[in-house]
Amino acid sequence: MEKPVLLTIKGLQIEGRSGDAWHPIVKGVDLTLHKGEVLGLIGESGAGKSTLGLAAMGFARDGCRISGGTIDFDGIDLRTAPEAKRRGLRGKRIAYVAQSAAASFNPAHKLIDQYCEGPVVHGVMSREKAEADAVELYRRMRLPNSEEIGFRYPHQVSGGQLQRAMTAMAMACRPDLIIFDEPTTALDVTTQIEVLAAIRDIVRQFGTAAIYITHDLAVVAQMADRIKVLLRGDEVEEADTRSMLAAPRQDYTRSLWAVRSFARAEQPPATGTPVVSVRNVTAAYGAVDVLKNVSFDIHARRTVAVVGESGSGKSTTARVITGLLPPRKGEVLFNGKVLPPNFKARSREELRQCQMIYQMADTALNPKLRLRELIGRPAEMYLGLRGKALETRIRDLLALIELEPDKYIDRLPSELSGGQKQRIGIARALAAEPQLIICDEVTSALDQIVQEGILKLLNRLQGELNLAYMFITHDLATVKSIADKVVVMQHGAVVERGPKAALFADPKEDYTNLLLSSVPEMDPDWLNRLLAARGGHA
Amino acid sequence: MTILLSIIVGLGLFFLVGFAGRTALQAAAPAHHKPMFREMPLTASFGLAVILFYVAVAILAPAIAPFGEGEVLGAQYLPWAAPHYLGTDKLGRDMLTRLIYGARNTVGIAFATTALAFVVGSVLGIWAALVGGRLDQFLSRFVDALMAIPALIFSLLLLTIFGTSVLTLILVIAAVDATRVYRLARSVAQGIVVMDYIEAARLRGEGIWRLIRREILPNAMAPLVAEFGLRFCFVFLSISALSFLGLGIKPPTADWGSMVRENATLITFGDITPLLPAGAIALLTVAVNFVVDWQLHRASGLKE
Q1: CA distances from A168 to A150, A161, B104 (A)
Q2: Which residues of B touch A378 (CB under 8 A)?
């Protein structure tokens, strides 16, 4: 089984600069990759996955430097090789696929022009041959209209297709090694499957070795032959995929595996007047209806998860409830009373009752305000707290979200980690003492372990403070752990709704079924089985 | 030679004062503000020392000036000798006295003008970006129309209509400059109003004034502060240009811009007296920009 070794990294150390000091990012990692093998690199953000992946090309980002160790690619020492030689390798023998294809393609050039650049510059083939080759690879990546799609610009192609076009581009010179840096993280589950299947097939067909970087275990289980787990720049363990999944040796790996074990206890059916009820809402941006006759209720102490792909109208529903987008037809009731459609017409009391937590805590918190003001402002405004009472309230709220008041009260958002920022978002919503909190993809920008902490916190707060949650997400694992009721949306309409357990056990609609079956599972045979069940092609 | 030496000694003195002042501030500042002064570069403390010196001179002008502002004391163009340490000008007025009073007029007017332009321009600009729609259209097209008229011609026109007093001078130059500030503030704020935290604040029910002051302005500070440094210096030019045309600061009020012009002929005789007011402007300009750079560095978050 032993194939020749392609890439050997020994004792690799990489440092990053902050101010005048260098601090380690990768602390002496070893890595061996054989020809045709796929290695999965997993870890939380800040584990050094991407940095290590780039180092495999002999490259360090701005502000980083490779400070120790060796990188040997097929007999070439990438650390000492002159820049010209390294540049000759990149794109030709080592290729890179970035997380966001949309940000990595040049928007001013057609896909095929960007495809041909690599082969022509490296002198592998002529322009005409490269174009013919591009069409062939687009076909193998199962892109629709493979003859013609290359002549479109990046913005004329969907995200999943763009990611596949990028993989085809990386394949252009038939490299020995491709580095995939979270290629499906930004995609919907249903799209993700297509991309995963296409990537896996093409890598196998050409016998290309690959390093697959991701934070999603279930994904890496489908793609990789071997898995290496990283934590803060150190290797935790490495083993082949099946034995790693079956019997992880380290505690940290086990904690990664167990992360989605959290599930909320089953709740009895809710009764009484719902906190919020959306009745037959139709809403439009301009002339296009983006919501069509949407209705559902949310009761106190209950969580309703609204799921669907991007563009299905989940966030638009939230905008209707908050009053940012007055509906064309239908109404929103709060405790049985009709709310004014536009938030400007709502009273301060009505505004207080409904709070929102955003997906990106970075843009949801004013970067120039200290936590004291960020959290304190709603309490000051709605509850009229001043001086000492306000200070006490801010400290209580910080304690409630499990941040030490004395340490954090005068910090700026930039001095917090991603998970801590999201906690501040929660505290700001709680400060208003609302009845309903709308959570718009609150965990999707976070690592899994941090996600779990946030979900547990939200769950605990719901019990303590009698909150109703509307939980918008495309991540069904989150739904499984926190929801009581699920509303499935597609193209702006509610496809199916019902209690979580019933819906997951026996989905009535095809779309719900497709959505549920697309969630990657930890089983390494999951993708094979699914593709077989769906009739070969995803 | 002695002149060169005294310039060097003078600048060195400012540096020393700046350094001492910075050390004192670091010790005396409340704990909360300590980091701000710890990271203060020497250039900024130099700039601060210069600005404080100018302000002191401007305030204390009547007390420290040896003669009256418009007093004609003797022959014109006297050389540098006691009691006229920097000589006299073309009407026989004491140069040193007029330099001191010039600080009061020129710096005071320039500062008031720039500050006014910034308050009006940035508040209106952010307001337009925040509210959008018709208000934005109305304000922006109005500003476009004003900007379409060359600044100098427009100021001349306004000054002719409203008459020339120091107050109208300030208001007219501020109005012209505010259009530029408006443009900048609006474009910066347009990038900020789409952020989620602005949406959150709107949904909270915050008023316009609070949104402008606490949510948007702190995030728009960096480019505005940089622009402030630049505009402040351009105002000197505007005042001098208007004075030259007889519509700016009226004689016998001393103003550095006009003083350069009035005494310019002396240069041809190898006398550097007309360079003194020019040097005073240059030094202040450099000092202001040193301080602005420091604030810009802080506001833009480059420190991290």
Answers
A1: 11, 10, 70
A2: 204
pLDDT tens digits for range A91-116: 888 888 887 777 888 888 888 888 88
**Who contacts B4 (Cβ-Cβ below 8 Å, separation ≥6)?**
none
pTM of the model: 0.79
Q: Which residue stretches of chain A have pLDDT < 70?
A: 1-2, 19, 259-261, 535-538
* Contact flag B200-A360 (C-beta cutoff 8 Å): no
Residues 140-159 of B with CB under 8 A from A: none
User: Which residues of chain B have a CB within 8 Å of the CB of A346?
Assistant: 205
Contacts (Cβ under 8 Å, ≥6 apart) of B117: B173, B174, B175, B177, B178, B180, B181, B231
CB of A140 within 8 A of CB of A177? no
Q: 275-304 in B: which are within 8 Å (CB) of A? A: 301, 304
Residue matched to tokens 């938030």: A343
Return the residue matching tokens 């180092």. Answer: A55
- Say what the pLDDT of residue B32 is: 62
Assign a CATH topology to domain B40-300: MetI-like fold (1.10.3720)
A473-525 pLDDT, tens per residue? 888 888 888 888 999 988 888 988 888 888 888 888 888 888 888 887 777 78
Q: State whether residue B30 sits within 8 Å of chain A by CB.
A: no
The complex's ipTM? 0.76
For A497, how many CA atoms within 13 A lie in the half-sphere containing its CB? 13
Cβ distance B204 to A343 less than 8 Å, yes or no, reads: no
Task: Quick: pLDDT tens for B187-222.
Answer: 999 999 988 999 999 999 898 999 999 999 989 888
Three-state DSSP class for A236?
strand
β-strand partners of A288: A285
| Rounded Cα–Cα distance for residues B58 and B284 (Å) | 13
3-state secondary structure A173-225: CCCCEEEEECCCCCCCHHHHHHHHHHHHHHHHHHCCEEEEEECCHHHHHHHCC
- State the Cα–Cα distance between residues A71 and A76, nearest whole angstrom: 8
